[in-house]
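Format is chain and fold; as here:
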Amino acid sequence: MSSSDYRAGAGPAWDSVRPARRSQVVLVIFALLFALPAAVFTVLRFWQPAGQSAELLSAFIGYAIIGYLVSLLLLVIALIRARKRAVVAVITIIVAALVCLHGSWIGPLFVPDGRAATTPAFRVLSLNMLHGGADPERVAELARYADVVVLLEVEPDTRAALDRYGWSERFPHALGADDRGVNGSSVYSRFPLSDSELLPQTTFQQWITTVEVPDVGPVRLMGVHPCNPYCGSRTYVSEHRLIRRIAAEQPKDRPLIIAGDFNAVDDHGAMQNLRADGLRSATDVAGAGWLPTFPANRRFPPLIPIDHVMINDRLTATEVRTVEVAGTDHLGIVATLAGTT
């Protein structure tokens, strides 16, 4: 046998470069197709340019971790199959780090922060009524277990509909102009209200008041409903800035609650600003998990958590849950709160 015949039958030379497996290349390509869109959401978490598109996209930042997890799975498989692993390994490490980053934003929602309750508990219910269309009987049923209720998008006849189920007997203290149509908002309380003011120049009514909660003392309460990004970026930003400014003006030694339809998720800049000012979502404090509230009237589950109960460090939350009400596109949110030291 000649030397050339020997070489032909022996396969490639020992020092030849073997091509990457086609399946490995396909896995990496698909991994990048999942990771790159997720990276857009990561950038938005740190930098949200003004504009309706950015504000709407930012509502889905929480879903980026799904893209990263799928990408990571594909990369790990590719890494196991790879002949040359350096490049794939670097990409895998970067994606794994991004999974950890997003996990650090979502994970705390599932872990109670340990604020001890030092007073008896009281409950706050917040619900967007969707043009007053929420089932009044169901709303009244849920409110039997609440002490303070914030209702948004109430109609002029909302109070009368609720009164058929004993609403005024349960909540003798109330504020809110029900004659503004869907722009109206109301606060109802078992406890006395005082120092009530309507926040100026907002699309929907927004209120600030003081609730005299037994054993807790005076609690400042803001019932909010800033306009959504479809109102225009300038309106959206300005109304959130107003909420932040009013909240910052409240006495630091007094409990503060901000409850309502924020039209923003925790990842939006407006919510991050409130957190930077010392306010926390009751969902986060209680470790209640990720609780999407909108849209609630579809064949699929709610996708984004835009309804919140925010509290300062004078309060704690022991339980937070969402509740379904027919006739509205929001889930209600019920927070069990108490004083803390």
